[in-house]
Amino acid sequence: MHIVKSVGVMSVAKIMGVLYACMGLLVVPIFLLASVVGAKAGQQNFPFAGVIGIVLAILAPFLYGFMGFVMGAIGALLYNALANWIGGFELEMEIRPNTLTAPYPIIPPTNPASNAI
Q: Domain of 28?
């Protein structure tokens, strides 16, 4: 068993920020659909009925990404603190023989002149 004792706070924060930004892209169609439905169902004298949904659709990936970055950093800091206190994740790893070999044998060149001193 291998134990993960700590994680890089910035590396986790960056990955979580990008993951959450991608998840924010998933809600863009929902905001756009809600803005169209709201514009059609709302009062006719309000000229910016659908603008709020469009603005939210544009801002959603950035807001999700920012919150993912912040929460990823906080989560990594908490993991590091708790892993020091109660232990980290236990991982069981398997070494596969095919992954450790090079695609071709690495044999250093031999120079008979260098062997003679």
A: 7-42+49-94
Q: Which residue has the tokens 């544009």?
A: 58
Answer whether residue 61 is part of any domain.
Answer: yes
Q: Kindly state whether residue 105 falls inside one of the protein's structural domains.
A: no
In the structure, what pLDDT confidence band is assigned to residue 95 with cuts at 50, 70 and 90? confident
pTM for the predicted model, two decimal places: 0.69
The answer to whether residue 34 is domain-embedded is yes
Count of CB atoms situated within 10 Å of the CB of 65: 20
Question: What is the Cα 112 distance to its own chain's centre?
Answer: 53
Question: How far is 67 from 33, CA to CA, in rounded Å?
Answer: 24
Phi, psi at 4, each rounded to 5° = -85, 110
